């Protein structure tokens, strides 16, 4: 998309946003790319470039190879410590501060960067990489973080809960696992009610998150895709903004 074409599309979308009472934003790994977080499907550096999702981000994979899976998450946690929200995350949070309750952020990301930028009420559909959970139910019925101090793993040794001996897992949603019902219901409601749905930095390959763009379109919202590349949700879009989110979002949200 030429610079002029992008500029005119941005101008068009800005008019939709100015008259929108309610805006929903669905984000994926691409919104964190300019913070230095590898996306999942980027061929060069993507997290999946070296393995398939079902090899690591599933309960079976963790049960079969706890060390390998835990190391992958411990490495991602470690890498995220040096990472900061980018101008796209900040533009969203600042817009929300200026216009309370007008924009709902729905994210597939587990990196916590929207929250770190100051966005309130983020609907984290796939959990948070920094939270721990037990692999099996635990007699203490409380999260390890409350029940027992779980130190970040020593590579190769996923921690066990000191109280109940349960294997500890990252509190993210793995493939084949249901999404948190409350967050998903709130996301569905936001998609149904919005006047504009911004779909930012996602390939649109992972469901049911991707389906929120379809829900918004069917409910009559203007759907806008912000992504330098083609996505599986382009057919739902009324506007395609082919650019990086850290520069497009600050131009859209004022
Ligand atoms: C479930 C946490 C019920 C873990 C993740 C319907 C149809 C087909 C399949 C299914 C379906 N329903 C369910 C499924 C199965 C499955 C699924 O969707 N499979 C896919 C692979 C086909 N879904 C599930 O299993 C979900 N659970 O439905 O429960 C159920 C129960 C039992 C049995 C069946 C169903 C759970 C899905 C959640 C999985 N967990 N994450 C972890 O992080 O380790 S998903 C993981 O991958 C991420 O969280 C993220 O959500 C996803 C990656 O997607 P993206 O964020 O879009 O990232 P990607 O790299 O793909 O794209 C990045 C984009 O950014 C690119 O387009 C790129 O161009 C762009 N970009 C790059 N730079 C920039 C940029 N954009 C803007 N600016 C830039 N600078």
TrEMBL record:
<dbReference type="InterPro" id="IPR026590">
    <property type="entry name" value="Ssirtuin_cat_dom"/>
</dbReference>
<feature type="active site" description="Proton acceptor">
    <location>
        <position position="126"/>
    </location>
</feature>
<feature type="binding site">
    <location>
        <begin position="227"/>
        <end position="229"/>
    </location>
    <ligand>
        <name>NAD(+)</name>
    </ligand>
</feature>
<feature type="binding site">
    <location>
        <begin position="201"/>
        <end position="203"/>
    </location>
    <ligand>
        <name>NAD(+)</name>
    </ligand>
</feature>
<protein>
    <recommendedName>
        <fullName>NAD-dependent protein deacylase</fullName>
        <ecNumber>2.3.1.286</ecNumber>
    </recommendedName>
</protein>
<feature type="binding site">
    <location>
        <position position="245"/>
    </location>
    <ligand>
        <name>NAD(+)</name>
    </ligand>
</feature>
<comment type="function">
    <text>NAD-dependent lysine deacetylase and desuccinylase that specifically removes acetyl and succinyl groups on target proteins. Modulates the activities of several proteins which are inactive in their acylated form.</text>
</comment>
<dbReference type="InterPro" id="IPR029035">
    <property type="entry name" value="DHS-like_NAD/FAD-binding_dom"/>
</dbReference>
<keyword id="KW-0520">NAD</keyword>
<feature type="binding site">
    <location>
        <position position="76"/>
    </location>
    <ligand>
        <name>substrate</name>
    </ligand>
</feature>
<dbReference type="InterPro" id="IPR026591">
    <property type="entry name" value="Sirtuin_cat_small_dom_sf"/>
</dbReference>
<feature type="binding site">
    <location>
        <begin position="108"/>
        <end position="111"/>
    </location>
    <ligand>
        <name>NAD(+)</name>
    </ligand>
</feature>
<keyword id="KW-0808">Transferase</keyword>
<dbReference type="InterPro" id="IPR027546">
    <property type="entry name" value="Sirtuin_class_III"/>
</dbReference>
<feature type="binding site">
    <location>
        <position position="73"/>
    </location>
    <ligand>
        <name>substrate</name>
    </ligand>
</feature>
<dbReference type="InterPro" id="IPR003000">
    <property type="entry name" value="Sirtuin"/>
</dbReference>
<dbReference type="Pfam" id="PF02146">
    <property type="entry name" value="SIR2"/>
</dbReference>
<comment type="similarity">
    <text>Belongs to the sirtuin family. Class III subfamily.</text>
</comment>
<dbReference type="InterPro" id="IPR050134">
    <property type="entry name" value="NAD-dep_sirtuin_deacylases"/>
</dbReference>
<keyword id="KW-0963">Cytoplasm</keyword>
<feature type="domain" description="Deacetylase sirtuin-type">
    <location>
        <begin position="3"/>
        <end position="254"/>
    </location>
</feature>
């Amino acid at each position: 998309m030429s610079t002029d074409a992008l500029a005119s599309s941005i101008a068009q979308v800005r008019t939709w946003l100015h008259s929108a009472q309610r805006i929903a934003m669905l984000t994926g790994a691409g919104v964190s790319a300019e913070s230095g977080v590898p996306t999942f499907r980027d061929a060069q550096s993507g997290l999946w470039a070296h393995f398939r999702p079902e090899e690591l981000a599933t309960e079976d994979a963790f049960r079969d190879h706890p060390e390998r899976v835990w190391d992958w998450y411990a490495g991602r946690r470690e890498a995220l410590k040096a990472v900061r929200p980018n101008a796209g995350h900040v533009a969203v949070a600042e817009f929300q501060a200026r216009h309370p309750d007008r924009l709902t952020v729905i994210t597939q990301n587990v990196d916590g960067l929207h929250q770190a930028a100051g966005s309130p009420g983020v609907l984290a559909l796939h959990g948070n990489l920094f939270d721990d959970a037990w692999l099996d139910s635990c007699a203490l019925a409380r999260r390890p973080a409350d029940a027992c101090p779980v130190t970040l793993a020593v590579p190769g040794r996923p921690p066990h809960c000191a109280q109940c001996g349960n294997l500890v897992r990252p509190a993210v949603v793995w493939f084949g696992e249901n999404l948190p019902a409350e967050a998903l219901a709130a996301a569905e409601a936001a998609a149904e009610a919005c006047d504009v749905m911004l779909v930012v930095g996602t390939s649109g390959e992972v469901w049911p998150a991707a389906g929120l763009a379809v829900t918004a379109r069917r409910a009559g919202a203007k759907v806008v895709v912000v992504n330098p590349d083609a996505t599986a949700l382009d057919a739902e879009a009324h506007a395609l903004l082919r650019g990086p989110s850290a520069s497009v979002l600050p131009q859209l949200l004022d």
